[in-house]
Amino acid sequence: MQKLSIQGGNKLNGEVRISGAKNAALPIMCASLLSAEDLQLSNLPDMHDVATMAKLLQQMGVAVSNSPKASTFNASKVDKLEAPYEMVKTMRAAILVLGPLLTRFGEARVSLPGGCAIGSRPVDLHIKGLQAMGAEVHIEHGYIHATAKRLQGAKICFDVVSVTGTENLMMAAALADGVTTLENAAREPEVVDLANCLIAMGAKISGAGSDTITIQGVQALHGAEYRVMPDRIESGTFLVAAAAAGGRITLTDTRADILDSVLDKLREAGATIEVSGDRITLEMHQRPRAVNLRTAPYPAFPTDMQAQFMALNTIADGTAMVVETIFENRFMHVQELLRLGAQIDIEGNTAIVKGCAQLEGATIMATDLRASACLVIAGLVAQGETIVDRIYHLDRGYEHIEAKLSALGAQIRRIK
Ligand code: UD1
After folding, report:
1. Which of 160, 233, 323, 396 should be mutated for ligand 1, with most atoms under 8 A from CB?
2. Alpha helices, H only, 85-123
3. Ligand 1 centre from 161 Cα, in Å?
4. Which residues neighbour 247 within 8 Å (Cβ) at sequence distance 6 or greater?
5. Taking the CB of the first residue and of the last residue of the chain, which one, N or C, has fewer CB atoms within 10 A?
6. pLDDT digit string (tens) for 346-365?
7. Percentages helix, strand, coil for the chain, rounded to the nearest 5?
8. Which is catalytic among the residues 116, 197, 356, 374?
9. 116 is catalytic
10. Which candidate, 318, 311, 333, 317, places its Cα nearest to that of 381?
């Protein structure tokens, strides 16, 4: 199993290019299932989840061709309407093939995702929405088996804001008969990116980015070329790393307009931030101040940035309250931070982090994707060597993270 060795104490300085967004790339790749024509995607990040999604689509019969600038997906010969357990258990986003397969081919068989490290993460809202559109859905042998002659437009109100739920139903509605309205829809920028790609393919969608999305179903979608948006969570991760370690870094190819809540918290921690076009520069030369956080759906503070800010709070001046409202078990990184000397108490969905002057390097274990990023940041500020074990989680969702951090001056290397 691969590990990262980090020698803490270096400041971060320089420029880093932000990759395409994982959480936009995955649904957009699934959108290729909605058309028999080519979908050419650029700015797809080079990471395991994207490779796993490409493999899943290929298993279904989608032709995938790669050039240095773009990947092309062609779903004219899909012959297997199934996402097997082996794929879904490693990448929950595989659930995103359900809506497209069902609406275009009238049938889909997708493994139930089951639990994962950060909580139970059910998919009941995806299923209920498809049923409201007329699908017959049965759970058989751990699989969701859905059938429908043609899905019918419907008015659907989500009980809970769900990102992939909104994306699945938006894709299903794109080819349904009539108008679908999604209420209490997710407003995440990745939902908007998917909607923009679908619109480029000929879908009729309005309201993406608000909590009500209206989709007028069409008979067929055509091919398109689309560039995936920059990754706001990767952007946030590098900014927090520099705020914790100190220094001056500039992110390029990113977007500040979708990072408001994160940039506000970094300023509160004491960082100076300048935005110019698609560049964000962060400068930090003092010990960070502790910042309270409460995760909530976009545009509020993202749950996918909670763990990284926890690392920053461990060495901050003061005490911070971190409240996690999206996932019930998303404090797995806390036990590992304690091994580095952090002072954190957990009460239900709240972590109370008392900043200490210094963490000390130790061997720690990554448990999920964003927890891994938190541990890397902790390693960058800890005294001596930190070994982060089980970094396959990190490889799922970050493009070449140790190369990017090394280029900024971090002492970090992969041990094979
Ligand atoms: C997506 C993101 C993930 C992020 C999360 C919240 C992708 C590929 N993943 O995950 O990185 O952490 O949004 O911003 O985009 N829920 C239900 N029933 C459902 C669906 C969800 O109860 O059918 C609950 C979940 O348990 C959770 C909440 O709704 O408590 C939000 O989950 P959701 O937005 O669906 O997360 P994902 O789309 O899986």
Report:
1. 160
2. 85-90, 98-105
3. 8
4. 11, 12, 13, 283, 284, 408, 409
5. C
6. 999 999 999 999 999 999 99
7. 35, 30, 35
8. 116
9. yes
10. 311
